[in-house]
Amino acid sequence: MTAPVTDDWFVDAVEQVAAAGRAACEALNAAVNALEEGCHARLAGRSMLEVVDGLIGAGGRETRFASAEAFRDFERAVAAMRAGVARSLVDDHGLSLTEVARRLNISRQAAARLYQSAPKVKVDPTAKM
Q1: How far, in Å, are 107, 120, 128 from residue 99 at the CA level?
Q2: For 96-113, what is the mean pLDDT?
Q3: Which of 18, 76, 84, 109 is most buried, by the most CB atoms less than 10 A from its CB?
């Protein structure tokens, strides 16, 4: 059995994805809650003008932008993690880009783009090359 890894780029990447995912969930929940308040106002008999003014007055535009940005941050974190995985599979484990593409269920071109976009990561101490 190998020793536990304590300083690992993959663990850091997963933690960044998780943090970005939680932030995206919070931002999306805020947007959904605001829309539901608008729905309740409409069901209570408010006019569409009143509903829209209420949503905008409560920061609707900022809420919408914040949720979109939080989701983009999540996507960037996932992309960075995937790029690091591709690079590690090639550099540390000796896989070809074709093999990486097959394992990740992506095209070879996408695997090459991921590999090229990743910074050189620390060598995987569990690699058996």
Answers
A1: 10, 19, 16
A2: 97
A3: 84
